[in-house]
Write a structure and sequence with these properties.
This protein is of the alpha/beta class and 404 residues long. Bound molecules: 4'-deoxy-4'-aminopyridoxal-5'-phosphate.
Protein backbone atom coordinates (compact mmCIF):
# COMPACT_ATOMS: atom_id res chain seq x y z
CA UNK A 1 0.00 0.00 0.00
CA UNK A 2 1.37 3.45 -0.89
CA UNK A 3 1.51 6.26 1.66
CA UNK A 4 -0.90 8.23 -0.53
CA UNK A 5 -3.39 5.35 -0.38
CA UNK A 6 -3.00 5.35 3.40
CA UNK A 7 -3.42 9.14 3.61
CA UNK A 8 -6.59 9.06 1.54
CA UNK A 9 -8.26 7.14 4.40
CA UNK A 10 -7.81 10.17 6.70
CA UNK A 11 -10.03 13.06 5.50
CA UNK A 12 -8.68 15.47 8.15
CA UNK A 13 -5.25 15.42 6.51
CA UNK A 14 -6.70 17.36 3.56
CA UNK A 15 -7.69 20.39 5.60
CA UNK A 16 -5.76 23.58 6.04
CA UNK A 17 -4.88 25.53 9.17
CA UNK A 18 -4.17 29.26 9.19
CA UNK A 19 -4.45 29.26 5.41
CA UNK A 20 -1.80 26.56 4.96
CA UNK A 21 -2.03 22.83 4.39
CA UNK A 22 -2.12 21.07 7.74
CA UNK A 23 1.09 19.23 8.68
CA UNK A 24 0.01 17.16 11.66
CA UNK A 25 3.00 16.19 13.80
CA UNK A 26 1.37 15.61 17.18
CA UNK A 27 0.70 11.93 16.72
CA UNK A 28 2.15 11.02 20.09
CA UNK A 29 -0.65 12.98 21.77
CA UNK A 30 -3.31 11.47 19.53
CA UNK A 31 -3.28 10.01 16.05
CA UNK A 32 -5.83 10.84 13.39
CA UNK A 33 -8.64 8.40 12.62
CA UNK A 34 -9.26 6.53 9.37
CA UNK A 35 -12.68 6.64 7.73
CA UNK A 36 -13.42 2.97 8.51
CA UNK A 37 -13.23 3.62 12.27
CA UNK A 38 -15.63 6.57 12.07
CA UNK A 39 -17.95 4.53 9.83
CA UNK A 40 -17.95 1.75 12.43
CA UNK A 41 -18.98 4.30 15.08
CA UNK A 42 -21.77 5.55 12.80
CA UNK A 43 -22.89 2.00 12.14
CA UNK A 44 -23.10 1.24 15.86
CA UNK A 45 -25.25 4.33 16.49
CA UNK A 46 -27.39 3.99 13.37
CA UNK A 47 -27.89 0.23 13.29
CA UNK A 48 -26.89 -1.65 16.44
CA UNK A 49 -27.32 0.54 19.51
CA UNK A 50 -28.72 -1.19 22.57
CA UNK A 51 -27.10 -1.74 25.94
CA UNK A 52 -24.76 -4.71 26.02
CA UNK A 53 -25.08 -7.85 28.19
CA UNK A 54 -28.54 -6.92 29.42
CA UNK A 55 -31.18 -7.48 26.83
CA UNK A 56 -32.74 -10.72 25.68
CA UNK A 57 -33.68 -8.97 22.43
CA UNK A 58 -31.83 -9.19 19.13
CA UNK A 59 -30.44 -5.66 19.01
CA UNK A 60 -28.81 -5.99 22.43
CA UNK A 61 -27.33 -9.30 21.38
CA UNK A 62 -25.89 -7.68 18.23
CA UNK A 63 -24.25 -4.88 20.23
CA UNK A 64 -22.88 -7.43 22.71
CA UNK A 65 -21.54 -9.63 19.90
CA UNK A 66 -19.78 -6.65 18.28
CA UNK A 67 -18.20 -5.65 21.59
CA UNK A 68 -17.06 -9.20 22.32
CA UNK A 69 -15.78 -9.69 18.77
CA UNK A 70 -13.60 -6.65 19.35
CA UNK A 71 -12.29 -8.17 22.59
CA UNK A 72 -11.27 -11.28 20.67
CA UNK A 73 -9.60 -9.01 18.09
CA UNK A 74 -7.59 -7.32 20.85
CA UNK A 75 -6.67 -10.72 22.31
CA UNK A 76 -5.22 -11.78 18.96
CA UNK A 77 -3.55 -8.38 18.45
CA UNK A 78 -1.64 -8.78 21.75
CA UNK A 79 -1.37 -12.56 21.51
CA UNK A 80 -2.98 -12.92 24.94
CA UNK A 81 -4.01 -16.43 25.99
CA UNK A 82 -7.65 -15.66 26.68
CA UNK A 83 -10.24 -12.89 26.37
CA UNK A 84 -10.53 -13.13 30.17
CA UNK A 85 -7.23 -11.22 30.15
CA UNK A 86 -8.55 -8.27 28.08
CA UNK A 87 -10.23 -5.54 30.11
CA UNK A 88 -11.65 -2.46 28.43
CA UNK A 89 -10.96 0.83 30.21
CA UNK A 90 -11.17 4.54 29.35
CA UNK A 91 -7.53 4.57 28.31
CA UNK A 92 -3.99 3.94 29.50
CA UNK A 93 -4.53 6.26 32.44
CA UNK A 94 -7.50 4.32 33.78
CA UNK A 95 -5.75 1.01 33.09
CA UNK A 96 -2.72 2.07 35.18
CA UNK A 97 -4.96 3.43 37.94
CA UNK A 98 -6.75 0.07 37.97
CA UNK A 99 -3.48 -1.83 38.38
CA UNK A 100 -2.17 0.52 41.06
CA UNK A 101 -5.38 0.54 43.05
CA UNK A 102 -6.38 -3.10 42.72
CA UNK A 103 -3.11 -5.03 42.29
CA UNK A 104 -0.91 -2.54 44.15
CA UNK A 105 -3.53 -1.95 46.82
CA UNK A 106 -3.95 -5.66 47.53
CA UNK A 107 -0.31 -6.79 47.32
CA UNK A 108 1.89 -3.94 48.61
CA UNK A 109 2.64 -3.60 52.33
CA UNK A 110 4.20 -0.86 54.45
CA UNK A 111 7.97 -0.84 53.88
CA UNK A 112 7.75 -2.39 50.39
CA UNK A 113 9.38 -0.84 47.33
CA UNK A 114 8.40 -0.37 43.70
CA UNK A 115 10.55 0.69 40.75
CA UNK A 116 9.56 3.30 38.15
CA UNK A 117 11.76 5.05 35.59
CA UNK A 118 12.64 8.70 35.18
CA UNK A 119 11.02 8.74 31.72
CA UNK A 120 7.51 7.80 32.92
CA UNK A 121 4.42 9.73 31.89
CA UNK A 122 2.49 11.20 34.83
CA UNK A 123 -0.09 8.43 34.23
CA UNK A 124 2.50 5.93 35.48
CA UNK A 125 3.62 8.02 38.44
CA UNK A 126 0.62 9.68 40.05
CA UNK A 127 -1.54 6.53 40.52
CA UNK A 128 1.32 5.04 42.56
CA UNK A 129 1.64 8.22 44.60
CA UNK A 130 -2.10 8.15 45.30
CA UNK A 131 -1.66 4.62 46.60
CA UNK A 132 1.09 5.86 48.92
CA UNK A 133 -1.60 7.63 50.96
CA UNK A 134 -2.96 4.14 51.80
CA UNK A 135 0.28 2.15 51.99
CA UNK A 136 3.66 3.38 53.10
CA UNK A 137 5.83 2.00 50.27
CA UNK A 138 8.84 3.58 48.60
CA UNK A 139 9.25 4.55 44.92
CA UNK A 140 12.70 4.01 43.41
CA UNK A 141 13.62 5.45 40.02
CA UNK A 142 15.71 4.08 37.13
CA UNK A 143 17.79 6.78 35.42
CA UNK A 144 18.90 7.18 31.80
CA UNK A 145 22.14 7.71 29.91
CA UNK A 146 22.93 10.62 27.57
CA UNK A 147 21.12 8.94 24.67
CA UNK A 148 17.96 8.57 26.74
CA UNK A 149 18.28 4.83 27.33
CA UNK A 150 17.53 3.22 30.68
CA UNK A 151 20.59 2.43 32.78
CA UNK A 152 20.05 -1.31 33.25
CA UNK A 153 22.97 -1.72 35.67
CA UNK A 154 21.47 0.91 37.93
CA UNK A 155 18.05 -0.79 37.47
CA UNK A 156 19.52 -4.10 38.69
CA UNK A 157 21.07 -2.35 41.69
CA UNK A 158 17.68 -0.98 42.84
CA UNK A 159 16.28 -4.40 43.76
CA UNK A 160 16.14 -5.38 47.43
CA UNK A 161 14.19 -8.06 49.24
CA UNK A 162 11.38 -5.49 49.64
CA UNK A 163 10.95 -4.86 45.88
CA UNK A 164 7.47 -5.93 44.84
CA UNK A 165 6.76 -4.30 41.49
CA UNK A 166 8.29 -2.61 38.43
CA UNK A 167 6.20 -0.27 36.27
CA UNK A 168 7.81 0.98 33.09
CA UNK A 169 6.92 2.55 29.77
CA UNK A 170 7.56 0.50 26.61
CA UNK A 171 8.30 3.61 24.50
CA UNK A 172 9.02 7.08 25.89
CA UNK A 173 6.56 9.76 24.73
CA UNK A 174 9.35 12.37 24.96
CA UNK A 175 12.58 10.62 24.00
CA UNK A 176 11.13 7.99 21.70
CA UNK A 177 13.36 5.36 23.31
CA UNK A 178 12.10 1.80 22.87
CA UNK A 179 12.87 0.08 26.17
CA UNK A 180 14.08 -3.56 26.26
CA UNK A 181 10.95 -4.84 27.99
CA UNK A 182 11.78 -8.54 27.80
CA UNK A 183 15.13 -7.95 29.52
CA UNK A 184 13.52 -5.68 32.12
CA UNK A 185 10.87 -8.35 32.78
CA UNK A 186 13.44 -11.16 33.02
CA UNK A 187 15.50 -9.22 35.57
CA UNK A 188 12.38 -8.56 37.67
CA UNK A 189 10.95 -12.07 37.34
CA UNK A 190 14.25 -13.65 38.38
CA UNK A 191 13.64 -11.86 41.70
CA UNK A 192 9.95 -12.78 41.85
CA UNK A 193 8.86 -9.22 41.02
CA UNK A 194 5.88 -8.41 38.75
CA UNK A 195 6.08 -5.97 35.84
CA UNK A 196 3.49 -3.48 34.57
CA UNK A 197 4.11 -2.03 31.08
CA UNK A 198 2.71 1.28 29.82
CA UNK A 199 2.31 0.50 26.12
CA UNK A 200 0.59 3.77 25.11
CA UNK A 201 3.43 4.78 22.79
CA UNK A 202 4.39 1.29 21.65
CA UNK A 203 1.27 -0.15 20.01
CA UNK A 204 1.05 2.65 17.42
CA UNK A 205 4.52 1.76 16.14
CA UNK A 206 5.43 -1.86 16.78
CA UNK A 207 3.89 -5.30 17.11
CA UNK A 208 3.38 -6.30 20.74
CA UNK A 209 3.22 -9.91 21.87
CA UNK A 210 2.44 -10.01 25.58
CA UNK A 211 3.46 -13.67 25.87
CA UNK A 212 6.83 -13.03 24.21
CA UNK A 213 7.38 -10.02 26.49
CA UNK A 214 6.08 -12.00 29.48
CA UNK A 215 4.67 -8.73 30.90
CA UNK A 216 2.31 -9.22 33.82
CA UNK A 217 0.19 -6.21 32.84
CA UNK A 218 0.17 -4.19 29.61
CA UNK A 219 -1.85 -0.99 29.07
CA UNK A 220 -2.63 1.11 25.98
CA UNK A 221 -5.03 3.72 24.58
CA UNK A 222 -7.07 3.35 21.41
CA UNK A 223 -6.91 7.03 20.36
CA UNK A 224 -3.13 6.96 19.88
CA UNK A 225 -3.32 4.00 17.50
CA UNK A 226 -5.90 5.16 14.95
CA UNK A 227 -8.87 4.12 17.09
CA UNK A 228 -11.69 6.04 18.77
CA UNK A 229 -11.16 8.23 21.83
CA UNK A 230 -12.34 7.24 25.28
CA UNK A 231 -11.29 3.61 25.37
CA UNK A 232 -8.21 1.67 26.24
CA UNK A 233 -7.12 -1.80 27.14
CA UNK A 234 -5.59 -3.42 30.17
CA UNK A 235 -4.08 -6.85 29.56
CA UNK A 236 -3.30 -8.80 32.70
CA UNK A 237 -2.26 -12.40 33.32
CA UNK A 238 -5.41 -14.29 34.20
CA UNK A 239 -4.18 -15.73 37.45
CA UNK A 240 -3.21 -12.24 38.70
CA UNK A 241 -6.52 -10.68 37.64
CA UNK A 242 -8.36 -13.56 39.24
CA UNK A 243 -6.86 -12.75 42.64
CA UNK A 244 -7.34 -8.98 42.43
CA UNK A 245 -10.30 -7.15 44.01
CA UNK A 246 -12.65 -5.16 41.74
CA UNK A 247 -11.56 -1.60 40.92
CA UNK A 248 -15.01 -0.03 40.71
CA UNK A 249 -18.43 -1.29 41.76
CA UNK A 250 -21.69 -1.14 39.85
CA UNK A 251 -23.67 -2.92 37.18
CA UNK A 252 -22.13 -5.52 34.86
CA UNK A 253 -19.37 -6.47 37.32
CA UNK A 254 -21.50 -8.44 39.78
CA UNK A 255 -22.64 -12.02 40.22
CA UNK A 256 -25.37 -11.60 42.84
CA UNK A 257 -26.16 -8.54 44.96
CA UNK A 258 -27.87 -8.40 48.33
CA UNK A 259 -27.46 -5.77 51.02
CA UNK A 260 -25.61 -8.37 53.06
CA UNK A 261 -23.17 -9.63 50.44
CA UNK A 262 -22.27 -9.22 46.78
CA UNK A 263 -20.45 -11.67 44.57
CA UNK A 264 -18.56 -10.58 41.49
CA UNK A 265 -18.74 -11.47 37.82
CA UNK A 266 -16.17 -13.63 36.05
CA UNK A 267 -13.21 -12.08 34.24
CA UNK A 268 -12.99 -9.78 32.42
CA UNK A 269 -16.36 -8.31 33.51
CA UNK A 270 -15.32 -8.11 37.16
CA UNK A 271 -13.26 -5.06 36.13
CA UNK A 272 -15.83 -3.45 33.82
CA UNK A 273 -18.36 -1.76 36.10
CA UNK A 274 -21.17 0.16 34.40
CA UNK A 275 -22.05 0.51 30.74
CA UNK A 276 -18.84 0.36 28.76
CA UNK A 277 -18.15 2.49 25.67
CA UNK A 278 -19.39 -0.37 23.53
CA UNK A 279 -19.56 1.91 20.47
CA UNK A 280 -15.88 2.79 20.74
CA UNK A 281 -14.94 -0.77 21.64
CA UNK A 282 -16.66 -2.12 18.53
CA UNK A 283 -14.95 0.52 16.36
CA UNK A 284 -11.53 -0.28 17.84
CA UNK A 285 -11.64 -3.51 15.84
CA UNK A 286 -11.49 -1.39 12.68
CA UNK A 287 -8.36 0.40 13.92
CA UNK A 288 -6.71 -2.97 14.50
CA UNK A 289 -7.72 -4.01 10.98
CA UNK A 290 -6.29 -0.75 9.61
CA UNK A 291 -2.96 -1.56 11.28
CA UNK A 292 -3.07 -5.16 10.04
CA UNK A 293 -3.89 -4.07 6.47
CA UNK A 294 -1.17 -1.41 6.54
CA UNK A 295 1.22 -3.81 8.35
CA UNK A 296 3.66 -3.03 11.12
CA UNK A 297 6.49 -3.68 8.66
CA UNK A 298 5.39 -0.71 6.56
CA UNK A 299 4.57 1.44 9.61
CA UNK A 300 8.00 0.79 11.15
CA UNK A 301 10.03 1.21 7.96
CA UNK A 302 8.21 4.36 6.82
CA UNK A 303 8.31 5.99 10.26
CA UNK A 304 12.00 5.09 10.54
CA UNK A 305 12.69 6.81 7.23
CA UNK A 306 10.79 9.91 8.42
CA UNK A 307 12.72 9.88 11.69
CA UNK A 308 16.15 9.54 10.05
CA UNK A 309 15.46 12.11 7.35
CA UNK A 310 13.91 14.73 9.64
CA UNK A 311 16.56 14.30 12.35
CA UNK A 312 19.38 14.80 9.83
CA UNK A 313 17.73 17.93 8.39
CA UNK A 314 17.06 19.34 11.86
CA UNK A 315 20.69 18.91 12.89
CA UNK A 316 21.68 21.28 10.06
CA UNK A 317 20.06 24.09 12.09
CA UNK A 318 22.68 25.78 14.31
CA UNK A 319 21.96 25.49 18.04
CA UNK A 320 19.68 22.45 17.60
CA UNK A 321 19.53 20.05 20.57
CA UNK A 322 17.62 16.79 20.21
CA UNK A 323 16.60 14.96 23.38
CA UNK A 324 16.61 11.20 22.88
CA UNK A 325 19.10 9.71 20.44
CA UNK A 326 18.82 6.00 21.17
CA UNK A 327 19.44 3.77 18.14
CA UNK A 328 16.19 1.96 18.96
CA UNK A 329 13.80 4.88 18.82
CA UNK A 330 10.22 5.57 17.70
CA UNK A 331 9.50 8.52 15.40
CA UNK A 332 9.28 11.10 18.18
CA UNK A 333 11.66 14.07 18.08
CA UNK A 334 11.89 16.32 21.14
CA UNK A 335 14.10 19.34 20.65
CA UNK A 336 15.13 22.83 21.67
CA UNK A 337 16.87 25.48 19.59
CA UNK A 338 19.29 27.80 21.38
CA UNK A 339 17.82 31.27 21.82
CA UNK A 340 14.23 30.19 21.09
CA UNK A 341 11.61 29.43 23.73
CA UNK A 342 9.84 26.14 23.00
CA UNK A 343 6.44 27.76 23.38
CA UNK A 344 7.24 30.48 20.80
CA UNK A 345 8.52 27.85 18.37
CA UNK A 346 5.29 25.88 18.68
CA UNK A 347 3.03 28.94 18.31
CA UNK A 348 4.86 30.20 15.23
CA UNK A 349 4.96 26.75 13.62
CA UNK A 350 1.19 26.65 14.02
CA UNK A 351 0.94 29.94 12.10
CA UNK A 352 2.69 28.10 9.28
CA UNK A 353 0.30 25.15 9.43
CA UNK A 354 2.54 22.78 11.39
CA UNK A 355 1.02 21.20 14.51
CA UNK A 356 3.61 20.18 17.12
CA UNK A 357 3.40 19.87 20.88
CA UNK A 358 5.31 22.06 23.36
CA UNK A 359 5.82 21.80 27.10
CA UNK A 360 6.66 19.06 29.57
CA UNK A 361 4.59 16.38 27.77
CA UNK A 362 3.21 15.08 31.10
CA UNK A 363 6.73 14.02 32.05
CA UNK A 364 7.82 16.71 34.50
CA UNK A 365 10.25 14.46 36.41
CA UNK A 366 12.04 13.76 33.11
CA UNK A 367 12.22 17.50 32.35
CA UNK A 368 13.70 18.09 35.82
CA UNK A 369 16.21 15.31 35.22
CA UNK A 370 17.22 16.88 31.89
CA UNK A 371 17.36 20.31 33.56
CA UNK A 372 14.87 21.90 31.16
CA UNK A 373 11.33 23.26 31.39
CA UNK A 374 10.01 21.67 28.26
CA UNK A 375 10.69 20.87 24.63
CA UNK A 376 9.09 21.13 21.24
CA UNK A 377 8.01 17.67 20.07
CA UNK A 378 7.35 16.55 16.52
CA UNK A 379 5.95 13.04 16.26
CA UNK A 380 5.08 11.04 13.18
CA UNK A 381 2.52 8.48 12.07
CA UNK A 382 2.45 6.24 9.03
CA UNK A 383 0.43 8.79 6.99
CA UNK A 384 3.08 11.52 7.28
CA UNK A 385 5.21 12.13 4.19
CA UNK A 386 8.75 13.24 3.42
CA UNK A 387 7.17 16.31 1.78
CA UNK A 388 5.59 17.13 5.17
CA UNK A 389 8.98 16.65 6.82
CA UNK A 390 10.36 19.18 4.32
CA UNK A 391 7.50 21.59 5.05
CA UNK A 392 8.21 21.24 8.77
CA UNK A 393 11.94 21.91 8.28
CA UNK A 394 11.26 24.94 6.06
CA UNK A 395 8.80 26.32 8.63
CA UNK A 396 11.22 25.64 11.47
CA UNK A 397 14.01 27.50 9.67
CA UNK A 398 11.71 30.50 9.23
CA UNK A 399 10.63 30.42 12.87
CA UNK A 400 14.19 30.21 14.15
CA UNK A 401 15.23 33.11 11.90
CA UNK A 402 12.30 35.18 13.24
CA UNK A 403 13.02 34.41 16.90
CA UNK A 404 16.72 35.07 16.67
N1 LIG B 1 1.55 6.86 28.95
C1 LIG B 1 2.21 7.43 27.94
C2 LIG B 1 3.62 7.01 27.65
C3 LIG B 1 1.58 8.40 27.16
O1 LIG B 1 2.24 8.98 26.15
C4 LIG B 1 0.24 8.77 27.47
C5 LIG B 1 -0.48 9.83 26.66
N2 LIG B 1 0.25 10.98 26.40
C6 LIG B 1 -0.39 8.13 28.53
C7 LIG B 1 0.28 7.18 29.24
C8 LIG B 1 -1.81 8.46 28.91
O2 LIG B 1 -2.69 8.06 27.91
P1 LIG B 1 -4.22 8.47 27.98
O3 LIG B 1 -4.25 9.96 28.18
O4 LIG B 1 -4.75 8.05 26.65
O5 LIG B 1 -4.83 7.73 29.12
Amino acid sequence: MSINEIRSQFPILDRSVNGRPLVYLDNTATSQTPRRVVEAIDDMYFAHKANVHRGVFALSQEATDLQEASREHVRKFLNARSTAEIIFTRGTTEALNLVASSFGGSTLRDGDEIILTVMEHHANIVPWQLLQSRINFKIKVVTINERGELDLDQYRSLFTDRTRLVSVTHVSNVLGTVNPIREIVDIAHSRGVRVVVDGAQAVPHLAVDVQALDADFYAFSSHKMYGPTGIGVLYGKEQLLENMPPYQGGGEMIGKVTFEKTTFAELPFKFEAGTPDFVGIAALAQALDFIADTSYELIASHEHELLQYTTARMLEIPGMRIYGTAPDKAAVISFLVDGCHHYDVGMLLDQLGVAVRTGHHCAEPLMNYLGIEGTVRASFAVYNTLAEADAFIAALNRVVAMLR
